[in-house]
């Protein structure tokens, strides 16, 4: 993949600046941690891709390659930073770009690009995860407002979000009549409960309750035309989320492989360097081979999307392969490191906790297989 205008170096420098202050997992984070992360990303021009242009719709040529480059490099150094970037810097603005009116995009996207607006995306419910058609949260028209009632879960970033992009079933349409509502983070009737998770708690995922939350008509993404037409936009955003997660998995795999390679070159056992043991050599070779295969899957998916093809199959294959093989790469890194990998001071222990995220974000492996099967006509 190409490196435009020193994008990689900016991403690395930005990450190192943030980590030096806040720690890899944001363990030194204070109240302004997420806001400062976004401001720092913006100051280094990492939030200004084509889909932040109010006059454009969706990503422009080269945008997804750039986005995947940045998130891969962030993930290599911190899953927490990569997740902040994915949710607030990519998925939120992509959704706005696809579905928003020109007026909404003019009002919101420049603030996102400047790191001034935090977004969260609320889709999953206790009874509706991969089955988005099972959503029960409702938005009912009432005078010149909509009343939102329901519950969402695993909403990353909701605790600090200025706007929560909330997918709700609208009462005027049919089975797939959904709207996306821009719910202010401090709205009356809105309650947000952070949920403890395996990693990344400095950027919590939350349970969100909507108890007759009022949203004005202007708060429906896409305006009146968007009330019952969110489904196609959700499919587009969901596809790109899978691509982004595949890139994140590649970053995690690179970090695990590089750390294992460094360790075996430094460590001595039984009077000789660890790198001289053939079993260790073979393990590191397998890790490197899998990580390379992951990158090739990712690059093929990015290329097909950039060329304007229907990249659904390529992206689902990349997400499936990368998230699945990542678990093997990280497990092998942990075995190479021995007991050291069990302790928090070792970076591989962080990767071991962060890697499972890629299995679920953007849809499970089983969902990817279903989408691939459809693309094969079976």
UniProtKB/TrEMBL annotation:
<protein>
    <submittedName>
        <fullName>Acyl-CoA dehydrogenase</fullName>
    </submittedName>
</protein>
<dbReference type="InterPro" id="IPR009075">
    <property type="entry name" value="AcylCo_DH/oxidase_C"/>
</dbReference>
<feature type="domain" description="Acyl-CoA oxidase/dehydrogenase middle">
    <location>
        <begin position="120"/>
        <end position="213"/>
    </location>
</feature>
<dbReference type="InterPro" id="IPR006089">
    <property type="entry name" value="Acyl-CoA_DH_CS"/>
</dbReference>
<dbReference type="InterPro" id="IPR009100">
    <property type="entry name" value="AcylCoA_DH/oxidase_NM_dom_sf"/>
</dbReference>
<dbReference type="InterPro" id="IPR036250">
    <property type="entry name" value="AcylCo_DH-like_C"/>
</dbReference>
<feature type="domain" description="Acyl-CoA dehydrogenase/oxidase N-terminal">
    <location>
        <begin position="32"/>
        <end position="116"/>
    </location>
</feature>
<comment type="similarity">
    <text>Belongs to the acyl-CoA dehydrogenase family.</text>
</comment>
<dbReference type="Pfam" id="PF02770">
    <property type="entry name" value="Acyl-CoA_dh_M"/>
</dbReference>
<keyword id="KW-0560">Oxidoreductase</keyword>
<dbReference type="InterPro" id="IPR013786">
    <property type="entry name" value="AcylCoA_DH/ox_N"/>
</dbReference>
<keyword id="KW-0285">Flavoprotein</keyword>
<dbReference type="Pfam" id="PF02771">
    <property type="entry name" value="Acyl-CoA_dh_N"/>
</dbReference>
<dbReference type="InterPro" id="IPR006091">
    <property type="entry name" value="Acyl-CoA_Oxase/DH_mid-dom"/>
</dbReference>
<dbReference type="InterPro" id="IPR046373">
    <property type="entry name" value="Acyl-CoA_Oxase/DH_mid-dom_sf"/>
</dbReference>
<dbReference type="InterPro" id="IPR037069">
    <property type="entry name" value="AcylCoA_DH/ox_N_sf"/>
</dbReference>
<dbReference type="Pfam" id="PF00441">
    <property type="entry name" value="Acyl-CoA_dh_1"/>
</dbReference>
<keyword id="KW-0274">FAD</keyword>
<feature type="domain" description="Acyl-CoA dehydrogenase/oxidase C-terminal">
    <location>
        <begin position="231"/>
        <end position="376"/>
    </location>
</feature>
